Amino acid sequence: xxxxxxxxxxxxxxxxxxxxxxxxxxxxxxxxxxxxxxxxxxxxxxxxxxxxxxxxxxxxxxxxxxxxxxxxxxxxxxxxxxxxxxxxxxxxxxxxxxxxxxxxxxxxxxxxxxxxxxxxxxxxxxxxxxxxxxxxxxxxxxxxxxxxxxxxxxxxxxxxxxxxxxxxxxxxxxxxxxxxxxxxxxxxxxxxxxxxxxxxxxxxxxxxxxxxxxxxxxxxxxxxxxxxxxxxxxxxxxxxxxxxxxxxxxxxxxxxxxxxxxxxxxxxxxxxxxxxxxxxxxxxxxxxxxx
Length: 291
Known about the structure:
There is one protein chain. The chain has helices spanning 17-29, 40-49, 67-77, 91-100, 112-124, 157-168, 186-200, 214-225, 244-252, 267-285; strands spanning 9-13, 33-37, 55-58, 82-87, 105-107, 147-154, 176-183, 204-208, 233-238, 255-259. By secondary structure, the protein is an alpha/beta fold. A 5-stranded parallel β-sheet has the order 2-1-3-4-5, sandwiched between helices. It has a 5-stranded parallel β-sheet with strand order 7-6-8-9-10, with helices on both faces. The longest helix is centred in the last third of the chain and has 19 residues, at 267-285. The chain is elongated, with a radius of gyration of 23 Å. It starts with 8 loop residues before the first strand and ends in a 6-residue tail after the last helix.
């Protein structure tokens, strides 16, 4: 595997041909030896006929032999082969496959940059012992009480009410915050936001994603961070994930993105807790903590 054009052998198993062929083309282009199977029966034939197989990208929901059956077969016959599950998000499925033993779990639509990182990691990791559940980076624990002035840039009182109500809720978050808000469309926000910036001097500005396109977001950030009363950090938050390139572009403009796409059984509470933790870490980073 020292050859740049021979990074490893990967089998993609998915009955969605467009997904399978797209992944095959992409990973072939960056140097992996790619195999494909469009259903479970075909996958079993490939698995049993190939001696050297580094990794399988495996869908779960397929007609006939499904991904669970394939995974169980692998653990009996080729226990060292790494497996990353790629499927529609399903908590019960995730719990089931983790009990059997997997090396990654990705919900569709896939963040390719994260998938690439995971593939590189699991192929390079030659340990025989699989981790149960899947290896994940542990979030650092918040051990101090953040305290800061927050300025929210929100589309309307309803959205702000949910978010602000969560930040103000006793027992919901670990933090003490003063809060102000500005509303409006992108044409009015620059002027109003700057006025509040001078009068209120917030530590952190939190902007709602749907208010801006990328150009407006970067322009607004430039005005904020170019001010003599510039905040410590700008945070863009929303429920729609962004591609790595967009996050990179935001970063160049001095903006950090918090993806709140955690709408599971606990819904909006979980989503806002994620934003609150994100804000708390920024506060601690800049020393904005309770004395």
